[in-house]
Queue: 3 jobs
Job 1
Amino acid sequence: MALSAMRETVTQFKKGLILRAAAKLFFERGYTATTIDAITEELSTSRRAIYDHFAGKAEILSEICEQSVRFSLDLAECVAREPGDPAQRLRRLARDFAMIVIENQDYITISTREKQFLPPESRKRILRMQEKFDRILRGILLDGVEREQFAIADPAITALAIGGMIIWVHSWYRAGGRLSPAEIAESMADAALRMALAAPS
């Protein structure tokens, strides 16, 4: 059992190295301009080391794109299980979602820019994950409406607007800018609450 767990840990570590190297190149050069040979050069390894873990470049792209959504969905599911009023949960989801976007800017940029190259099944999985995130956010907004904390005519549209506002941070965030990541995340949380028309506490 211990040996099997150790092997799995090593495998995941090696896959992580490949994904990070590929993401760096996809982010800088684009998916189509990046070859498997370029990834092996970035890692100073062999093609065999890549193919031991991935069937090819498309599978690497799929894993990067799915991870970019999984981070956010895991957060949303965690927030949905937490106690607290809708305004508190909306603030936490918006703030932490913005931090995820900033901390994973390369993965999210790749997912947004290169999704047309995803295999169909991967595209469907990612779409289902995105839809689940939207449903959770919509549920928080509906809860706020029912408790008369939020005044929203269309929670579904508002959920998409809030999610779109925050995910778009990947396109303009630059390290060392005027605001720190934490300040940007708090600003996104404030904006999300204003969009929900939260009543003063």
Job 2
Amino acid sequence: MKEILLYIVPSTNYFQNVCNIIKEHICPGKFLIYVTTNKSTNHLKGIFEGMKINAQEIFFIDCISKSIGDLNKEDKNCICLEGPQEITGLSIAINKAVQAIPGEKVLFIDSLSALLIYNDDCTIAKFSNFIINKMRINNVKTVIIALDSDADTKTIKIVSSFADEVKKDAY
């Protein structure tokens, strides 16, 4: 059975920490399914290139590009949702990606904190429980990111109880 990991990261050097966590979990033969709720896929690809992360091995589920007008309709490695408030659509997109991508994969959710801006605590707790159980059934390693400033929220505490391991501090 694959692990479910919750990383609580500081807001300072946030994205550097996220990139370090990605590097820790991506390796040849594994495909990363990256749920982005706070940066467009185009922006992420530029950052990843500079960080020596191969974006060709990443399938993006983009919850932000449509709403900010940074959409690349020709990108075959991306599903764009209407926005981070579309939790049902996000669940469906994750499930479709997991089913469609062959071989070993890692689901990377960046971030619960951003989802909490657009959705209430109860919705995100239910979504997290559903996705975590779905990934366990499908034997998909899952990495979930949350900001340390949200660590004491009810939702993050609930998600912590679903995870196999909670990691805190800088990476």
Job 3
Amino acid sequence: MTRLLIATTNPAKLAEYRLLLGEGLEAVSLAELGITDHPEETGATFAENAILKARFYFARAQVPTLADDGGFEVDALGGEPGVKSHRWLGAGHPDDQALVDEVIRRMRRVEPGRRTARLRAALALVYADGGATCQRVAEAALEGVVPERAWPHIRPGFPYRSVLFLPDRGRYLAELSEEQAARLSQRRIALKELRGDLALIAKAQIVARAHSARDSVR
């Protein structure tokens, strides 16, 4: 089975990708490959940061690498927290509850028609094809609204699910099971655009192994 490095330190996100990836690809973590360093995320957009991370980790792992960047966008807040979603409250690592509380605080007195928001993700895939290095990027969003109150239970690593209500389902995203959330995920939507490349990666590995097996019996 072909290894695909999922370049994240978020265990919940890694688990989601393992649910989403099809047969023929084995999702491996940074820890499993012994990679402990990380790039500085200096991109101005989700896509720029995703590409930066995918290139960085591919250079170290030398296996096909999938990285993403994403966050929460609230229209009434001018798109914030946006690309700064994980460091919205400044230096350090504020806990998930602090991020949820800040969204609700800033959205007080905002009328219902202006509470639109979304979770957005950009995925970058980097892999070798022959002598060339290939790069693909896909973006997607899961639309909803910010409710007046947050869902009381926060999924570790996914704080903004507790402040995204899905009107077409009448439920908070945080209410859904991991399997249900994965089926709706912005990452799943973006991943569909990369299916052709992922299939190519898996097929190339199978062909390489077949050639190796034939060479070994000559």
